[in-house]
Amino acid sequence: AQSVAQPEDQVNVAEGNPLTVKCTYSVSGNPYLFWYVQYPNRGLQFLLKYITGDNLVKGSYGFEAEFNKSQTSFHLKKPSALVSDSALYFCAVRDPGGGADGLTFGKGTHLIIQP
Amino acid sequence: NAGVMQNPRHLVRRRGQEARLRCSPMKGHSHVYWYRQLPEEGLKFMVYLQKENIIDESGMPKERFSAEFPKEGPSILRIQQVVRGDSAAYFCASSVTDGSNQPQHFGDGTRLSIL
Lengths: 115, 115
Description:
By secondary structure, chain A is an all-beta fold.
C-alpha cells in the first residue's frame, strides 16, 4: 500500500526567507509525486509533479521540489517566501504499478508566512 | 468558468435523509474522482469514474454510498440515510486522461453538514 507522511503540522517562515515543506512517501514501485495547495474554503490547486527525469521540478508561483529516491522524499521549496504563500499544502503520491487509481494524500502542512 | 464545478457548495441534511452531490468536470475531461476530507486530515480517495463506468471504488464505504457518471450530465455522489459521521468536505477532481501521471484538477468542494 502507498502512503505519504508530512511530518510537520505547521511551518512558520518570515517573509523573504526560504521555505521548505517536508514530504516522505512509501510505494512499492517508482512513484508519481504531486504537490497541491489549498486556500480556505477552496479546492486543491496543482503546484507541480514529478514523474521521471530531472530530480528538481519547478512549478507554479516560484515553487520547486526535489525528488530524492534514496531518502524517499519530495520536499517542497521556495527561495523567498511571500505572505500570500500562507496556505495548506498537500503532498500526494500515486503508484503507477498498482493500487487505487486515486491519489494518496498526506495530512497537510499549514504554511504561515509572517510579515 | 472552465474549471471543475461542484454544487451545492454547502449542504445541510438531517440524519436519515439523502445527500446528492454534483460534479461537472472540466471541459474535455472524461475522468472523475471523488475524495472526502475530514477536519484536519488530508483527502481520502473514494471512487474513480469514467463516462458510464465505475473504474475503481476501493475507497467507497460499502453501504449507503454510491456514485455515477452518466453519459449526459454531471457526476453524482449519493449518500443515503446520512449519519453524523458523514459530515465532511467532498471534493471532485477531473483529468483529461486516465494516465496516472496527469494532474487532477479539483473543484471547490461541497461541505456536507449533518444535523
